[in-house]
Amino acid sequence: MTLYVINPNSSQGVTDGLKKALSPLEALGHPIRCLMLNEGPPGIETQAHIDSVIQPTLQLTRTLDDATGFVIACFSDPGVKDIRAETALPVLGIREAAISSALTLGNRFGIIAIRQGSIPRHLAAVDAMGLSDRLAADRALELGVTELADETRTLQRLLSTARHLRDEDGADVVILGCAGMAQYRARVEAATGLPTIDPTQAATAMALGRIFLRQSHKPEVNHA
Amino acid sequence: MTLYVINPNSSQGVTDGLKKALSPLEALGHPIRCLMLNEGPPGIETQAHIDSVIQPTLQLTRTLDDATGFVIACFSDPGVKDIRAETALPVLGIREAAISSALTLGNRFGIIAIRQGSIPRHLAAVDAMGLSDRLAADRALELGVTELADETRTLQRLLSTARHLRDEDGADVVILGCAGMAQYRARVEAATGLPTIDPTQAATAMALGRIFLRQSHKPEVNHA
Amino acid sequence: MTLYVINPNSSQGVTDGLKKALSPLEALGHPIRCLMLNEGPPGIETQAHIDSVIQPTLQLTRTLDDATGFVIACFSDPGVKDIRAETALPVLGIREAAISSALTLGNRFGIIAIRQGSIPRHLAAVDAMGLSDRLAADRALELGVTELADETRTLQRLLSTARHLRDEDGADVVILGCAGMAQYRARVEAATGLPTIDPTQAATAMALGRIFLRQSHKPEVNHA
Amino acid sequence: MTLYVINPNSSQGVTDGLKKALSPLEALGHPIRCLMLNEGPPGIETQAHIDSVIQPTLQLTRTLDDATGFVIACFSDPGVKDIRAETALPVLGIREAAISSALTLGNRFGIIAIRQGSIPRHLAAVDAMGLSDRLAADRALELGVTELADETRTLQRLLSTARHLRDEDGADVVILGCAGMAQYRARVEAATGLPTIDPTQAATAMALGRIFLRQSHKPEVNHA
Amino acid sequence: MTLYVINPNSSQGVTDGLKKALSPLEALGHPIRCLMLNEGPPGIETQAHIDSVIQPTLQLTRTLDDATGFVIACFSDPGVKDIRAETALPVLGIREAAISSALTLGNRFGIIAIRQGSIPRHLAAVDAMGLSDRLAADRALELGVTELADETRTLQRLLSTARHLRDEDGADVVILGCAGMAQYRARVEAATGLPTIDPTQAATAMALGRIFLRQSHKPEVNHA
Amino acid sequence: MTLYVINPNSSQGVTDGLKKALSPLEALGHPIRCLMLNEGPPGIETQAHIDSVIQPTLQLTRTLDDATGFVIACFSDPGVKDIRAETALPVLGIREAAISSALTLGNRFGIIAIRQGSIPRHLAAVDAMGLSDRLAADRALELGVTELADETRTLQRLLSTARHLRDEDGADVVILGCAGMAQYRARVEAATGLPTIDPTQAATAMALGRIFLRQSHKPEVNHA
């Protein structure tokens, strides 16, 4: 029996990063497997990308017969509602899991987006959770693909953005608004003193808890 | 190393119930120990009770040198802020954990209180989380001590209250608003089809995730 | 040049109903054409249905070269964000248009859903618009397919639901939460005295206004 | 039959500007007539001005026997509630219409006020619509009467304010918070890429839609 | 020097009732004088009534040279903003004062309206204060003029409405939504156990506090 | 009979300041007595401090037999809920009183905190009152103990913070977020033109009003 963490893009690098980010949770003794969506785009950057992966992600989950649960490892939570409609197994989107985790780590959470263009989607999701009053701000790294490949450059920008969220926007918790940033989490925390959430870690821990507690979004009704 | 689940009242029955409720999480391999507060009241029913246990609970946590984290198993979250101020270990109140868990299990959560008198405190806590728009309603069982001792009677009332939350108030998730109701969770789910949250289970699973992920509300700053 | 009103399901009856509902707007002199999605399901009732029509709807809009704007005539607003990402022409979802129209017709709007199962989606959408405080309630007709075919039965249920929204929930505006109910609008108004919104009419009027005003969600930047 | 757009101040220049701003809507074939309130102040800048025009505006509407609807072209919506209490014809205030239109053009709207002193009134109105979470910010041009007469100066200030709303406050839609700014709308859009709403245009388009759809805030009850 | 409590309607009975309601505050030693607006309507029941009294009320305040502050004793707060714009003396509307007082007497306040037709205005005011999440419900007595003259009948209806607010709507504070109900306050409290606010008493006490504390909404700037 | 204003810290200087701040209210003729908590910390700066004073404050109130009401003069409102649970006399916390007073003095209130570390507590309290949309910002003086002893330095920082709240954050009311700042209130008002609230003055005036009006949070039920 396996908890599947699905990266809906086709980047092997991101998928390997997920695997590494989740290694501390392997100690819990439940198999976790990270998959990627081969037909997905290399990265999920637009609304069209998001919607284009919903159907294939849904298809993929249908084939995973030994699944005990699913984590959709994209900060846009593509297909989460669809998969939930089909299964009673725990299904978690990393954005909703990160945001709900943030509520018990501080008063005001800040989100670090990769691109400015994702922010309206993030705001709509925060509004939809009824949590806009808890959001300090959502700020973008605004780094190009090549810059993102440069780890020093990316870290530098992550730190300056996290400090801005803390000092100007009043954030006391930071959410890394992307599936591929776990490797920086500890360094952001050490540099800012702010609890920093990697959304895939948060969602996977939450999914494991639900598996062990048999906590389903759709419990079976006993007509007896 | 141990995760301590502290029942701030002095009821052995409640404490034994917690132990039983958490047994599914023992499979995760991390020691969990349920303690009770000997100097606490038999039950925590008033604001005065709540505040009277804050200092002793805080004292108790100071003596638990092998702690990896703390769960305060009272739906009023007494002392959670105080303990967090003193330690960087995960500290979770069961009310805040239950409410944040509910956000990913449905749109509108309903809370089942034991007593009418607790509802204003619950509402204030939901407001303080910025989540009043997500609350369907908070309804009380209104059972006396002797009735609560009668399991059939209590279950009956739990089911009618949960159905009311579902059918009249529009709740699609139920939170058991008390530490001592875990034994009824599966039956409420089977009878209503609504995901039902035992707050101590939710908080303990969350605490374990944080321990494994080293997710602290107060990460150490690296001045190097 | 034509404003296209797209019914993402494959029901000819609904599509004919849209055409009739929009006839009062033909007087404005701008061509309006109602299309349906042949590959769509007969009705859109589940999250899976919703997501299954996004791609085909998007495809369809790409083929409509003489379009001056698009109205997506399904109360789940499928694909609206995607189409907006591709075009600067006005694109309106009927749900968002109905809800924003309701704000200037009263203080508290009530929504009449066809099925109970749609209500959580409606609530999430209202939350996402930041308007949960303006919502009086969302109530379902709970009629089966055959009953919906019975106009007398449907009207009767619509009226009792609208009266409940008015008298119990405090609604002073009613939104028909479905694309296929326009024929009942005048009768609901005459029976209840409440302004009643047919979402497709509201969205189409809004789209025409934007076409004439050249009001785009994505105006062209003049780099001159 | 005529839709009356009433400028509650006595500035001929503003009234002429309204007429020009609405010319694109004449193509819809419904007569639109812009009137001004001769007894009104030259400009409406204070709460006292606002309330002083309510009665005369109400009086004026009573004399317009061929009216099919009314638009009150002052961003403080003076008398809108009063007129609605007297007639079943569509009555729209330009502020409420602009704000409700903004909801379908972006996530966060910014308002450009002429004077700092109007901002508290705007905020109260946004709060009253339940939309404070959708407001990015409200910023004033702070230009004196003579500066406002200087079109280049005014445009320059409009653009810098719109850019500030976009870049610092996160607005993705702009509302021109005054009846007399339509002439700048296209230039603000071209310079910023943000959808920009002229409130009188928005309200008049909305009023026309209601006239054609016979959408009243007070439908007649059929006691038959 | 005198604090003026202005009843904007022309009912001597209501004015006498105000005088009586405020007698406990005479012990504070500051002169309080209740005036009525002779040109006002006998009762203020519609939006038109409300706006019709704004100018005369404003005029009246201008003539009261020995004023130390003003209370506008109508639950629609007519003219409050206008008077504040003209004077730095304390100016309080009874509705806003009652609602802000309720915040420190309980979690959820209920409002008792005289007429159903006033409720949308009350809701808009509560929304405008940003307090819709604190409102339990607003319910009307729905008594005709003659019934209101019958004290027994009115009390009976007040008690049943207050009990409904408490038991069905979850209110733990009651606001009498009218200037003329003070005589019933003690009886509503004794019958329900709920803190019950007479808005004129609340506003007058608040005004006196501001007079003694020299707390102005518009303090003088010292340019020295 | 006496209204007791309790300073839960053990600073004589602060207690003397309270006495002075309240002298304008002595004119109301009701005895007011300021006490301090000898066993309290010299200042209340942490959550642990807050909770450590709850029990002793509660004890102290039990000994004050001639009390007509209580004001808890610490901006964290420690023990307010507990004392209310024990008595029907008016009990006011200075934070809640200041915030509810601010609602009728402007649209957006700003809070001046002494220390950055208090801001999360303030935000949680504002959220709990459902008022986060009315808060402009909460900014800290960030002065050390010695600097706070320097009145010129403190005033200077208060003024710059108040101006920042006004000019950058849009506050039109200022709350001094501490019990010991009353001596600066008039100077902040004179320098900024913003209504400025000393929380102890606001709470004490409110308490006096309740004493004279016999307005209790827990009225006696008449079972006759």
UniProtKB/TrEMBL annotation, chains A, B, C, D, E, F:
One of its GO terms (molecular function) is amino-acid racemase activity. InterPro entries: Asp/Glu/hydantoin_racemase (IPR015942), Hydantoin_racemase-like (IPR052186), Iso_Racemase_Enz_sf (IPR053714). Signal peptide: none annotated. Coiled coil: none annotated. Belongs to the HyuE racemase family. This is Asp/Glu/Hydantoin racemase. It comes from Boseongicola aestuarii.
